[in-house]
Amino acid sequence: MKQLMRTATLAFVAVAVLGCQASTDKVDSPVILTIEGSTTIVTPGFVSVSDSQTAGWATIESMTLKTVVKEPNATTSALESVEMESYQVTYRRADRGTQVPSPLHESLFGSIAPGSTYTLSGFPFMRLSQLSTPPLSVLATRGLDPETGSATILLNVDMQFFAHTFSGKPVASEVKTFTVEVVP
Questions:
Q1: Predicted TM-score (pTM) of this structure
Q2: What pLDDT digit, counting tens, does each position of 66-78 carry?
Q3: What are the angstrom distances between the C-alpha of 25 and each of 16, 20, 30, 79?
Q4: For the chain, which terminus, N or C, has the lower number of CB atoms within 10 Å?
């Protein structure tokens, strides 16, 4: 009886695992969204929290998104085109500090045909909502980060893009990371 129960349990687990695999294959997108090349931050390459030229936001000069067909020899259709939805920016400290700005979520419009590119220019990776709250607001008013005692804050900026194919399948890019120096 014990042997029969073990066999039945193993069969149930095998069916469940195979069923899960089959269902995830059905929802996978036929294309991958990638971030091409390097990120170019607006010159001079740092963000000043008190500079009036920043006007409450920091931008990326240029970034190119590309759709790559998962099966290169497959026939593609317009249904595999990607419609952009949004992007998310999160921040991690690249210095000894722990406090970070809140994440930035922004809508994004445009579409990319399979195997094509879409170049974004002058779009924000930090807005007033990030610059006007701790730790960046404290750096602006006191000239020092209270956690580290430094006159600069180094942030790793993680950016990810979200979209869906015209057929409705979700697509997300890999996370692109760059480091920015924030000064008073």
A1: 0.78
A2: 999 888 777 778 8
A3: 14, 9, 10, 17
A4: N
The answer as to whether 84 is a domain residue is yes
> C-alpha angle 27/111/127, rounded to 5°?
100
Q: How many structural domains is the chain composed of?
A: 1
Contact 76, 69 (CB under 8 A): yes
How far is it, in rounded angstroms, from Cα 22 to Cα 9? 20
Q: What is the CATH number of the domain that holds 175?
A: 2.60.40
CA distance 156 to 178: 6
Residue 149: give the domain boundaries.
Answer: 29-183
At 110, is the secondary structure helix, strand, or coil? coil
The dihedral region occupied by 128, where left means phi > 0, alpha psi between -120 and 50, and beta the remainder, is: alpha
Mean pLDDT of the chain: 81
Query: Looking at residues 39-64, what average pLDDT do you find?
Result: 70
Partners of residue 118 on adjacent β-strands: 65
